[in-house]
Amino acid sequence: MAKIGLFYGTDTGNTERVSKRIKELIEAKIGTAEVDLLEIYKKKKDDMAKYNLLILGMPTWYDGELQGDWEEFITEMQQIDFTGKKVAFFGLGDQYGYASYFCDALGVFSEIAEKKGAQIVGSWPIAGYEHDFSKAQRGDIFIGLCIDTDNQEELTEQRISAWVPQVLSGFEH
């Protein structure tokens, strides 16, 4: 398997913590040094474009706002040709406090990647969540893994542990 680029943006450290755990689980399955963990801060399109396997992690703030570093990266992302690339998304959000915007950032960025040719892997069921709306939702699935450390922290490890093998399988096929 090719090297994986795991890009994340964080303000509180929660997305960084989840990113590190995903990296640990992947490397436990396929070997160490197989994942480059990269904070999106001050990254350019070429930093991401060099990977054919990508995992992108981002929180959604308040009423659907993007994390600042990801918001600054949108124009860079829109310039990447994702043809032949496989991309998995995970995001953090608050399904109770912001029930109409839960993990919206995933929907925003997955739409960009898909329009630019990406194959999205790692969808996740909406069962077990209580939200009203999400740009990341398509029917009865999310486009990627949604984590709610504010209200369902006790499910975080279980969800990550179930999602990682699914992503790796998607990367292989």
What does this structure look like?
With 173 residues, the protein is an alpha/beta fold. The chain has helices spanning 14-30, 45-49, 68-77, 104-115, 156-172, and strands at residues 4-8, 35-39, 53-61, 65-66, 86-92, 119-121, 124-125, 137-138, 141-142, 145-147. Helix 1 packs across helix 5. Strands 1, 2, 3, 4, 5, 6 and 10 form a 7-stranded mixed beta sheet that branches. Strands 7-9-8 form a 3-stranded antiparallel beta sheet, with no helix packed on it. The chain has one domain (4-172): 3-Layer(aba) Sandwich (Rossmann fold), CATH 3.40.50.360.
Q: Could you report the average pLDDT, rounded to the nearest whole number?
A: 95
Provide the β-strand percentage band. Answer: 15-25%
What is the end-to-end distance? Answer: 11 Å
**Radius of gyration from CA coordinates:** 14 Å
Shape: globular
Number of helices: 5
Number of strands: 10
User: Which sequence of SSEs, written as H and E, runs from N to C?
Assistant: EHEHEEHEHEEEEEH
Give me the secondary-structure category.
Answer: alpha/beta
Write down the CATH class. Alpha Beta
Question: In the CATH classification, which architecture applies?
Answer: 3-Layer(aba) Sandwich
Tell me the CATH topology: Rossmann fold
Task: Give the tally of structural domains.
Answer: 1
| Major β-sheet annotation | 7 strands, mixed
Low-confidence stretches: none
Fraction in helix: 25-40%
